[in-house]
Design brief:
By secondary structure, the chain is mainly alpha-helical. Helix content is 46%, strand content 6%. The longest helix has 18 residues.
């Protein structure tokens, strides 16, 4: 069957910008390439989209404004709105590795439908974290989906389970052979954003002032992003042993060619201990393994084994 028909059908069935959710990235190969921090540019882009949405707001209805903002911040069939800006703006410095030079060289990802139509996404520096631009799309698009599920009664643990199911299915293993914990983390942090954007509270974005919503907090990526979004640190899992072995061999070749530099995941093991504690602010400790990968959990200074999958 024509692959366009297949992908179009998946979008209709699942209701998400499918390419944005299924795009993969190689954060590893270019990890040590210097990149200018693009946070301020990306903060400005998000704020401009929020401002555009507010032209149509009425009164102090936060949920109505959230729906308006989602029409600006959520992407189209191909990419997330902010992801697209990060992919194309001449002001955003990017590192790009084609599939045939990447850690996915020689795997079933190379030459797949996703590789054929969109290839790997680039990496950018956001608040000091090197992440794929696809994470910006996950943050806004899939984060909104998770927040919508919470409104309908889902718990935090159920939201994490939803993201894991997606990464184990058409958004990950089935389509690309990659289950990305970085995607799961950016989905969850996007949920946190939409919750704070939509609701009153100590981290609210708006307050009601004389019958209108007044913005009291500007968006900053550094309020949400973490090393968990990086697939070089929050290690991905793969569809089968040959896929994983090929990735490992490609990473080994990188280390052989760049003596003194670590490329094995997690590339910065010390970050994993930080992440375990960081996400305990919102996630019960026994469920941290829903968002932090087994390789990351078993690295660093802590090696406790009381995590549930």
């Amino acid at each position: 069957m024509n692959p366009y028909i297949i992908l179009s059908a998946l979008v209709l069935v699942f209701g998400h910008p499918f390419y944005a959710a299924a795009t993969e990235v190689d954060d590893v190969t270019s990890y040590y390439q210097p990149l200018a921090d693009s946070e301020e540019l990306l903060n400005g882009r998000v704020q401009s989209l929020i401002t555009a949405a507010r032209k149509f707001e009425r009164g102090c209805d936060r949920r109505a404004l959230t729906q308006l903002a989602s029409t600006q911040l959520i992407g189209n069939f191909f990419y997330g709105a902010v992801e697209s800006f990060a992919n194309t703006s001449p002001l955003v410095e990017r590192a790009y590795t084609p599939a045939h030079f990447s850690i996915y060289r020689g795997t079933t990802y190379q030459g797949s439908i996703v590789d054929t139509f969109v290839n790997l996404g680039p990496s950018v520096n956001v608040a000091g974290f090197r992440v794929g631009t696809d994470k910006l799309g996950h943050f806004m698009d899939m984060g909104f989906d998770l927040y919508s599920r919470e409104i309908r009664g889902a718990s935090v643990v159920q939201l994490l389970a939803q993201s894991r199911r997606e990464e184990s299915g058409w958004w990950g293993l089935y389509m690309t052979g990659v289950k990305s914990y970085g995607d799961i983390a950016s989905n969850f942090d996007g949920y946190r954003f939409w919750k704070e954007f939509s609701e009153a509270g100590p981290r609210q974005y708006f307050e009601c002032d004389r019958g209108r919503l007044k913005q009291v907090r500007r968006f900053k990526w550094s309020d949400y992003i973490s090393a968990a979004w990086s697939e070089a640190i929050n290690c991905s899992e793969y569809s089968d042993a040959p896929f994983a072995a090929t990735v490992a061999a490609n990473i080994g070749a990188l280390e052989n060619a760049n003596a003194g530099f670590r490329y094995a995941c997690p590339i910065a093991p010390e970050q994993c201990d930080i992440l375990k504690k960081y996400y305990e602010r919102w996630i019960p400790r026994r469920h941290i393994a829903q968002i932090i990968s087994p390789l990351c959990l078993s690295s660093g200074r802590e090696r406790k084994q009381n995590f549930e999958y």
